[in-house]
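Hi support team,

I've been running sequence recovery on a batch of backbones for a student project. Most finish fine, but this one hangs at about 90% for roughly twenty minutes before it completes. I'm not sure whether the input is malformed or the queue is just slow. I've pasted the structure tokens below so you can try to reproduce it. Let me know if you need the job ID as well.

Thanks,
M.K.
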């Protein structure tokens, strides 16, 4: 599962990406800083199962701090998008290819209005334009792919829904959309056979498929520079989150250097020894301007909204020893996994390893000590031992 960070050039995408991941993303004040996509790992928070068992855990694929588990999620920062990208303008073709890898998109908007639609410095630009045209570009790109492949699809299929679904799934595989997602959209639009796939239905299909397969979250970045009051004007019209990626990056860098104790997403930090007067004033300024006013920098909340709300993920813990809630080496609650809400014990088994899934016998719910079958639906925070054959 991958979350994509998207937006026009010079809106703060790379800063947001680095604030999430602390990866070495190039950051500069000019368009197209990101030429090739940056990949990194972010972490989402949940109450750790160690709190339920009153144990000290020893994570391997994640980390735990103060009974809060931080579970990894892949992040991609893609090249900047400009109007006409679906036709290849700017770095459009590369942007779209990179974007296709993501399962959800965090759309970074320069809410200050100090960059135009191409990412060039300006004054008084209306960021509402960015909220609408970027999504339209992605929808047009989806529609273009369907239209370009339609003659090929028609030549292979008979006029029935089974072949239509099969051919669409094959032709759209590069977009990382599933057969289930395509079927849901076809059913919702009442398309059961090829002749119903008119140009208008193609546009509707593309837009709805994008909404289902790559939901977009709007982020009002550079909130500290919004002297025009753009966020206040737009917040009731759009579901948009105030963010200061530069502040989050500053707090994380200070935390990495041991100058402060800061948990991503928190509304405060604890100052340690070693801060000089200039650093202290800078952090105090960000605390007053961002944390005290908005409750957080917004960066961590955006990622968690994308993962838990848009992608409907929950956190579960597979273990090998149900009595010690540990792996074979004694690591307590070693791994936390993100899995889609409604997934079963068998789904988790396959996620851990294909062989374990194919040889699944049953599972043990470590919280209740009850044995459960392969269709047992998982809940957030579940700890399971998978029993598999040899």
């Amino acid at each position: 599962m991958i979350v994509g960070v998207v937006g026009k050039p010079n809106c703060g995408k790379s800063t947001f990406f680095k604030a999430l991941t602390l990866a070495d993303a190039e950051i500069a004040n000019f368009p197209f800083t990101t030429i090739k996509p940056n990949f990194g790992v972010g972490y989402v928070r949940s109450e750790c199962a160690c709190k339920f068992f009153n144990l000290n855990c020893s994570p391997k694929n994640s980390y735990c701090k103060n009974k809060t588990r931080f579970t990894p999620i892949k992040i991609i920062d893609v090249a900047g998008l400009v109007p006409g990208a679906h036709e290849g303008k700017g770095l459009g073709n590369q942007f779209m290819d990179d974007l296709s890898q993501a399962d959800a998109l965090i759309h970074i908007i320069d809410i200050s209005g100090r960059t135009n639609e191409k990412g060039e410095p300006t004054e008084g630009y209306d960021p509402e334009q960015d909220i609408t045209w970027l999504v339209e570009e992605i929808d047009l790109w989806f529609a273009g792919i369907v239209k370009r492949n339609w003659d090929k699809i028609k030549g292979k299929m008979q006029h029935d829904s089974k072949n239509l679904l099969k051919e669409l799934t094959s032709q759209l595989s590069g977009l990382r959309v599933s057969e289930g997602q395509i079927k849901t959209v076809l059913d919702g639009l009442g398309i059961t056979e090829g002749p119903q796939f008119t140009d208008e239905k193609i546009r509707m299909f593309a837009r709805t498929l994008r909404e289902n397969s790559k939901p977009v979250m709007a982020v009002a970045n550079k909130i500290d520079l919004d002297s025009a009051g753009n966020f206040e004007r737009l917040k009731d019209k759009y579901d948009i989150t105030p963010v200061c990626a530069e502040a989050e990056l500053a707090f994380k860098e200070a935390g990495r250097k041991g100058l402060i104790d800061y948990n991503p997403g928190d509304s405060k930090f604890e100052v340690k020894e070693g801060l000089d007067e200039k650093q202290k004033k800078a952090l105090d300024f960000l605390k007053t301007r961002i944390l005290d006013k908005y409750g957080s920098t917004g960066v961590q909340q955006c990622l968690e909204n994308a993962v838990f709300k848009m992608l409907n993920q929950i956190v579960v813990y597979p273990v090998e020893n149900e009595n010690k809630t540990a792996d074979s080496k004694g690591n307590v609650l070693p791994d936390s996994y993100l899995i889609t809400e409604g997934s079963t014990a068998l789904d988790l088994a396959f996620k851990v390893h294909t062989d374990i899934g194919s040889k699944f016998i049953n599972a043990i719910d470590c919280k209740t000590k009850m044995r459960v079958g392969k269709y047992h639906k998982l809940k957030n925070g579940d700890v399971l031992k998978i029993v598999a054959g040899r």
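--
Follow-up from support: It reproduced on our side and the slowdown came from queue contention, not your input. Residues 25-35 have pLDDT under 50 and may be disordered. No action needed from you.
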